[in-house]
Every structure is written in C-alpha cells, then in structure tokens.
Write a structure and sequence with these properties.
4 helices
Length: 240
Amino acid sequence: MEGELLYMENEHFSLVDALPYIDTQLGAAEVAQQVKALIEEEMTQFEPRDYLASLPAPELPFLNGPNMQEEFSRVSMRQPLGAIDQKKYEIERPEGEAAEDEESWKKIASTAQMNLEYARIKSLNLELLETWGKKAWIAHNMLIRGAEKVLGKEATEIRASREEVNKKRKLDQVSCGNDLRKLMRELEQYQQDNSQVEQAVRGLESDLKRLRDFAVERGVDIADVDPMAKPKESEMDTQG
C-alpha cells in the first residue's frame, strides 16, 4: 500500500510497544537472559519471509550485463578468478614454418604496434601528470571539501532532527511513565483496600457466626434482627 511504512506489513504490529526510557528493568541481566531465551524459542518456530517482496526491484543495468552475469556465475560455482593473460603482449620471432608465414609476421607486428601505443599513452599520461597533476589534485581537493561541507551540513541537520525526535519520544514516554506509575499506585492501593475490606468482612462474618451460635445456645430468638439466623429448636419442634 502506497504511503505505508514497511513495519506496518507485519501482522499485529500495533500490539508491539516499547518504552525504553522508562522500562529500565529490561537492562537487568536476569531479565535480559529471559528475553533472549524467549527470542531464541520464538526463532525455532519462526518462518522467515521476504520482507522486501512488496517493494519494486531496483534497476541495475550494469549488474545485468553479460560480463557481470558471467562473473556471478563464476562466483556461484566457486571458480577462481583467472589471472591477467600477459602472453598477448609478448613478442616472439616466428621459427620454423611460421617464419615463412606472412600472417605470423603480421600478428607480431600488430602486437608490437599495440605495445608501442601503450608505451606512448603511458608517456603522455606522465607528461600530463607532470604538467597538470598538482593543479588537478588541488581542484579535486576543493571539490571534495565542498562535498564534505554539504554532506556535513546534511548530517548535522539529520542529527538535529533525530535528537528532536528522541527528545519528544523521551518527554512523551516520561509523561506516560508518570501516568503509568500513578495508575500502578492506585491499583496497589485498591488492591490493598480490597484486601483489608475482605479481611474485615471475614472478621465480621466470624463474629456474626459466633453471635448466631451464641444466640442458639441461649435460646434467644433473633429472627427479627437477623432473618438469616437459625430458628430456635423449640420452634423447629413445634413446626415439626
């Protein structure tokens, strides 16, 4: 889906939350080991998928060329890289029947011309380097420094933007942490209050049972004040 971030393609991504600025217990060694064990257990049942399947493949015309494909095939078959063939630069005088063959001499002459051309180009490059090398290097350094300033400025802006995001996240998480701690204290207080109420209720129930038993033993009719009280034995015999 256009405009959708990559992590949103994960199922139930909205259930994953993290508060690294307030979840400090995750840094404990014991908790870290537990988390690592859970991750390793999950990985044993995890089926990896292609996370880039929804993205279009990049266009790489250079890598799709025949020469590169040939190299990829060589690497995939673990074949060694062939050394540079220097025999085509060697000049050997034809001997035997080859000495009478005109094509052999033409081939040698072509190789000699090629070597001479290489030598001429090397000499020309050395002359150009001697004349313009220093100036070219100074100009190159100026371009590099200019590019460094531009990239440095972009990097500084990105770092500043990242810091703003981190600061906002920290402030939001600290605020959420305060709310969570407040709710946790309220929960603990409610649990404590409920425990005290339950304890008091059990005490009252014990006292009520004791009073009821005492009333039965003394033959006191308390039905008018306690409808749940047991009737006296005399009344039960009369009703029987």
